[in-house]
Amino acid sequence: MTGLMGRIRGWRLMPAVVVAVGLLAACGEDSTPTSTSPTPGAIPTLDSATQVTITFLSYNYGTPGLGGQGTQALIDAFEKAHPNITIKPQGVPVKDVLTKLRTDTAAGTPPDVAQIGWSKMAEAVEALPVVPVQQIPPEAEWKEHTAGMSPRILSAVADDGLVKSMPYTMSIPILYYNADLFRAAGLDPAKPPATIEEVREYALAIKAKGSEGVYYAIADTSKSDFLTQSVVNSNGGSLVGGDGEVTVDSSAAVQALTTMQDLTTSGAQPAVNSDSAVAAFNSGKLGMLVTSTALMAGAQKAADGKFELRTAGFPAFGDKPAKPTYSGAGLAVLARDDAHKRAAWEFIKFVTSEEGFEIITSRIGYLPLRDSVATKLADTPIMKLLEPSISQLDTVTPYTSFNGTKANQAVVTLQDEAVEPIVLRGADPGPTLASAADKIRRLTA
């Protein structure tokens, strides 16, 4: 476990600010991003007598299963350490983040800090008055804070050498499973399925004993496509090609979603939305759930005293390597005056410190982005449950973003008009993906 950050350094955490079309990052010298003028007009520390209230828009805040309690713990710890700064949180569903930010900005009331998913970051940076986070503190302070973070992560999220949003939460899809339901179906919990073919077999065995078998949260109610990308990538395809072209209707993508559809039509997977499936798993009525590690803390709490929770790596397509795609978010600053910008930085600095990442990992389930935290939590139950995802970091594939200012609309089109109809409602995969691809090409032209 102590090698966690060494493994993270071996690949690029590519935000949607850039169209990520490559494979894993090529190696190279680690180097913290710099710019020709990294901190123009850097804002000094707030006077302790200065009272500031900042607003924090977060899709984790207030949620029962996506780290709501962990986010509140972060806020509470920060306010205790900074009695002159008050955090006013705003919970917004992840699918509505950009809409809310656009509306509030137009009204002249943007939040001071916003948690924005990587899939929405491209539009956010282009359309909103984001203050580059690297330019808020003096250069020496920036370097001191980021010294314990992966230089490659910081370089990957930089735009022309400047970090505009701070890496905050990172998760990778994982297979959660109920070891008790495995035993009831005559399956060995010590030998979880490693391929989608085995997932189907195990799921049908569980189904035969009266419980639901498996659920891939690919028809995600948050309108995120990270699991769609994970499935398509693992079948040798992609949603965006090497030149930025839309490839959601490629044969590999069609085959991947056909396989997902078969899980439903065979009875191995229930035809419900992802929220219902998570609830079923947490109540002990679903044998396997493939979704983000961000739900780890909620799953742990639900399983405690009810069933034995275990995890396994993202399943592969036959002998092809599994290529899960990360999800998560960065923290962007939209504060308008110096006092609020500085207070925003103090909050960001805290939640991405060792103390902050310890809360993020132990209370939510996101991966720690500091070596020290990975080492400290190495023997904890949640870190052991995260181990299958950590073991797949070598083959994780960067998130790929569609081109243009309507990239997020393109993702919603893909999820609503192709993925959900195919996987849950039996739509013909080929023509359905072709139709969605045509719309996406027009949106991103």
Automatic annotation (TrEMBL):
SUPFAM superfamilies: Periplasmic binding protein-like II. Residues 1-25 form the signal peptide. Keywords: Signal. Gene3D superfamilies: Periplasmic binding protein-like II. InterPro entries: Bact_solute-bd_prot1, SBP. It holds the Pfam family SBP_bac_1. This is ABC transporter substrate-binding protein.
